Amino acid sequence: MAGREYLNRQAATLLKFAKTTTNPMVALGLVEKAADSRSKPRSRAPKAVPRRPMLLATASASLAPGIR
């Protein structure tokens, strides 16, 4: 998940682009995106992902009995 500093920089960049455009619809879209990036949850520690157990060497040998 993105950190707070990263999201702040992204929002600031979007607002700068919104100020430079002459199209009001584009500016509105950029401002909305900036608000969305600011409202995202702050960084949290990632959840632990269970990993598959490693295959044993004997199991791989049984798959290819002629190769050692």
Verbal overview:
With 68 residues, this protein is an all-alpha fold. Helices cover 59% and strands 0% of the residues. It has three helices and no strands. It has helices at residues 4-20, 24-39, 57-63. Helix 1 (4-20) packs antiparallel against helix 2 (24-39). The longest helix has 17 residues, at 4-20. The model has no long low-confidence stretch (mean pLDDT 75).
Count the helices. How many? Answer: 3
What's the count of strands? 0
**Unreliable runs:** none
Mean pLDDT: 75
Distance linking N and C termini? 44 Å
- Strand percentage, roughly? under 5%
Give the overall silhouette: elongated
Protein structure class: mainly alpha
CA radius of gyration is 24 Å
Describe the biggest sheet?
none
Percent range of helical residues: 55-70%
Oligomer: single chain
Task: Return the string of H and E elements.
Answer: HHH
In short:
The chain is mainly α and 68 residues long.
List keywords for this structure.
0% strand; 3 helices; mainly alpha
Secondary structure topology:
Blueprint lengths: L3 H17 L3 H16 L17 H7 L5
